[in-house]
Design goal:
Blueprint (H helix, E strand, L loop, with lengths): L1 H43 L2 H4 L16
Keywords: Membrane, Transmembrane, Transmembrane helix
Length: about 70
């Protein structure tokens, strides 16, 4: 009987570890998506990095230096 409860305890631990892994995986996906968006925006709007006025329609938020 003791062995059976040990198996159940192991299963609970594994389930908890799996849930933690899934949470970390989801966080990692969000971080990667944000990084991809930032990189894509910098490619679309390179003048953001240079601080120049942006003329491209994609870059409407980056008209910072006037």
């Amino acid at each position: 009987m003791e062995k059976h409860s040990a198996v159940i305890e192991d299963q609970r631990n594994l389930t908890a570890e799996l849930q933690m892994f899934k949470k970390k995986e989801r966080m990692l996906k969000i971080v990667i998506a944000v990084m991809v968006l930032i990189i894509a925006f910098q490619v679309m709007c390179p003048s953001l990095n240079l601080g120049k006025q942006c003329l491209d329609s994609w870059c409407s938020p980056c008209v910072l230096d006037i």
